[in-house]
User: What shape does this take?
Amino acid sequence: MSQDTPAGPATPGTLGWLGTGRMGTVMAGRLIDAGRPVTVWNRTAAKTEPLATRGARVAGSIAGLAGCDVVFTMVSTSADLEQVTLGEGGLLTGERRPGVLVDCSTVSQEVSAKIRAAATAAGVGFLASPVVGNPDVFAEGKGSFIVSGPADTYRLVLADLERIAGKVTYVGEQEQARLVKLAINLYLGMMVQSLAEVVTLVEKGGTSREAFLEFFTGSALTSAWIRRRSPELVTRDYHLTFTNELLRKDFDLGLGAARALEVPMPTASAVYQIIQSAIGNGLREEDFLSLYEHQARGAGLASVSE
Assistant: This one.
């Protein structure tokens, strides 16, 4: 929470959650565990079952969420968000609409602004609230929200945002949260590729991944993310958190924003081509830590688990 944004009024009553994939399930589950009444919907109904067993009500259609005070959405792409909000039977198209729509997806600023305009015209508050952190991080209560939208709407839902995440940062009245999230994911992709390169270099020179990462994670150059995931790099047993395909999508959006703002991004542009090459070589659905595999192959390294 930013220091200049005061706490808000009482928490709204009923909550809806649209999108119960890996991340959405964990986030909605935190609300349920906090005793909040949650109604869930997902295009593949079977994915709502884990939340139903924990006490969530399952809606038969998107319209079943329309009567909720606040609806959270967590979908994969800009097109998905347009469909569930503005498409046939969408959240903003019926006679009944939620009071507030909180979108947690990573989508373009342009689509976010389009949905914000439609929500405003329909009398619905809209917050762009993309997340930072994978499902494991959110399960531990250590995830983060970046939020932008009307300050009074933000104050209204702040308590529920804090039930889901360990850190909530308000960054502005419009679409600022979208660009901040894209910047974070651009940096994350560049960081992982940089790590893959230096690990491959020392490994081919005769130092084990385990020895190098033991040193690196104890140095001033490390991060909590690297400390958490370096054991997977040693064993090459990657826990799926974020696929290369989704990373490519965010690089598409981030580099598009950079072009619109006339900001040169030479490093990010190079990493984008590496991600594209990794996908073309069969790593589309692998966790993006598998960029190491692509780097090792390019170096002619016979990589084995340690």
User: Anything to note?
Assistant: The domain at 180-298 is CATH 1.10.1040.10 (N-(1-d-carboxylethyl)-l-norvaline Dehydrogenase; domain 2). The first strand starts at residue 15 and ends at 18. Residues 1-10 have pLDDT under 50 and may be disordered.
